[in-house]
Write a structure and sequence with these properties.
Layout lengths: L33 E5 L6 E6 L3 H20 L2 H17 L1 H12 L3 H21 L6 E3 L7 E8 L2 E5 L7 H13 L2 E5 L6 H13 L6 E3 L6 H9 L3 E7 L2 H12 L4 E5 L4 E5 L5 H13 L9 E7 H16 L19 H16 L3 E4 L3 E2 L5 E2 L2 E4 L6 H4 L6 E7 L2 H9 L3 E2 L1 E5 L3 H10 L4 E4 L14 E2 L2 E2 L4 H6 L2 E8 L3
Parallel strand pairs: 5-6, 5-8, 6-7, 8-9, 10-11, 10-18, 11-16, 15-16, 18-19
Antiparallel strand pairs: 1-2, 3-4, 4-22, 9-21, 12-15, 13-14, 17-20
Helix pairs in contact: 1-7, 2-4, 2-5, 2-6, 3-4, 3-6, 4-5, 9-10
Length: 491
């Protein structure tokens, strides 16, 4: 009897799912092992999926390798049309996809719907960008030759996506690759594979040829990652996750000089200067800190507030944080859902306890909620010092440590004093200060007087040990193209 994805509660269109071993987007199944997907709000089992490994990954790579020349051989318009159809199917099934996402990841349904819309936006953007892959002509040094540059797809791309944005990250990673003419083998996070499965089922309906998009389910990424890195048919790896795993994948790819795109850890500073609009800064901090329960790579991890406005900011911020409602993502009006698992819960409890032990003050929150699920109160800490774990490590949860500062130059130095360089935020009104701080912060993305800055039209990515490459924008397409110089003589 074939494994089937079960009907998840609140779904309106369970026909999205069929028997797993009949979906053409899956590699050949060899292992008989399975793993469970859990609802983090309740701990209930949502699905039992095949636990695939290196053999299934190798079979999926072989399918992608065979399919790639045909996919690349289509016109840009033909590839664009398939991406457009996929985009429309995502829009048509947005409510169902959001329900799956909330069930397996926990985020509030309103946030899940926003994420699905964001995923669709990436498909739309790269459906359009597929038609804008341009070469160039070069002035030749003699009259008997012509020189030009063309751009061609890399080939097969292995992608590994995280659990915190399981729909938008799938679209953001693979849509530029598909637009460029590459084929895909995707391994979604083991905590949140169901929405990826639904999106790939819709991709099949959209008309992608056999072998162009391939999905691998696995409870652990080691075997899949090793095969993707070692297999010479894979020309590039795109990974979003921890810096530790990113380093490992980079080492594994080094023997083949394989291209990599890495979107890794962050330790984002959020700075409030004394000339800021404090109310706007509070709203921005709520967005940057508590979206997705603080489980975003660009989440504000260290909040620096200048001394002259510190007390006002803290008072207004704490008041807003106290009003945030924590609960099951399907409950109406919920602002913050559960943490993804018990490990995440243990980490935020550890960071809170460490801060208090070293002199920090809990201004609100600080406790786990209930015995079931992985809920934690949105928490604000003050009197934070550099010796505390919250000032050094990425918490990845609804914990906001506030650090008082006096000198503007010093706070920039402290903000830059990290191996990470993904995202930073600051609020200020003086134009001279805005330009100087924006240019001085050592981060790939800087939000100025805003707590949200992600867009399919903008390049997303970091510097230092936060990663390599960019996703989104026209630059994201370039990462999946090879540049080829042509020189024709005898003209």
């Amino acid at each position: 009897m074939p494994l089937c994805l079960p009907m998840i509660r609140h779904l309106k269109a369970p026909e999205l799912f069929g028997p797993i071993d009949r979906l053409p987007v899956l590699g050949t199944r060899v292992s008989k092992r399975t793993f469970e997907v859990l609802n983090p709000s309740t701990g209930e089992v949502l699905a039992e999926l095949p636990d695939m490994g290196d053999e299934e990954t190798r079979a999926a790579i072989d399918k992608a390798y065979v399919a790639q020349p045909g996919w690349a051989g289509l016109t840009a318009r033909e590839r664009s049309d398939v991406l457009w159809r996929w985009h429309q199917l995502i829009i048509d099934h947005a409510d169902d996809l959001a329900a799956i996402l909330t069930a397996e990841m926990g985020k509030p349904l309103a946030e899940a719907k926003s994420e699905v819309s964001h995923a669709a936006a990436y498909l739309q953007w790269y459906a359009e960008e597929a038609n804008r892959i341009y070469g160039e002509t070069i002035s030749a040094p003699s009259t008997d030759r012509r020189m030009m540059v063309i751009k061609q797809p890399l080939g097969v791309v292995g992608t590994i996506t995280p659990w915190n944005f399981p729909a938008s990250m799938v679209a953001r990673k693979i849509s530029p690759a598909l637009a460029a003419g590459c084929t895909i083998v995707l391994k979604p996070a083991e905590q949140t594979p169901l929405v990826a499965g639904a999106m790939f089922a819709l991709a099949h309906q959209a008309g992608f040829p056999e072998g162009v998009v391939n999905l691998i389910y696995a409870s652990e990424g080691d075997a899949v990652g090793r095969e993707l890195c070692a297999n010479p048919k894979v020309r590039k790896i795109s990974f979003t996750g921890s810096t530790e795993v990113g380093r490992l994948l980079m080492r594994q790819c080094s023997d083949q000089i394989k291209k990599v795109s890495l979107e890794l850890g962050g330790n984002a500073p959020f700075i409030v200067f004394d000339d800021a609009d404090i109310d706007a800064a509070v709203e921005g901090a709520i967005q940057a800190k508590f979206r997705n329960a603080g489980q975003t790579c660009v989440s504000a991890n260290r909040l620096y507030v200048q001394s002259s406005v510190h007390d006002e900011f803290v008072e207004k911020f704490v008041e807003k944080v106290r009003r945030l409602w924590v609960g099951d993502g399907f409950a109406p009006g919920v602002d913050i859902g559960p943490l993804i698992d018990k490990h995440a819960l243990a980490k935020i409890e550890s960071h809170t306890a460490d801060a208090v032990e070293k002199g920090g003050t809990i201004r609100c929150g600080g406790n786990r909620i209930g015995k079931d699920g992985t809920f934690f109160e949105p928490t604000v800490l003050t009197e934070i010092s550099s010796v505390m774990a919250v000032a050094q490590e990425e918490t990845f949860g609804p914990l906001a440590p506030i650090i008082r500062f006096d000198d503007a130059d010093q706070v920039v130095r402290e903000a830059n004093d990290t191996i990470y360089g993904l995202a930073a935020y600051f609020f200020a009104s003086n134009l001279k200060r805005v330009w100087r701080v924006a240019e001085a912060l050592e981060y790939g993305m800087v939000g100025i007087n805003t707590g949200r800055m992600s867009s399919e039209a903008a390049p997303f990515g970091g510097i230092k040990q936060s990663g390599i490459g960019r996703e989104g924008s026209r630059h994201g397409l370039e990462d999946y193209l090879e540049m080829k110089y042509l020189c024709m003589g005898g003209i």
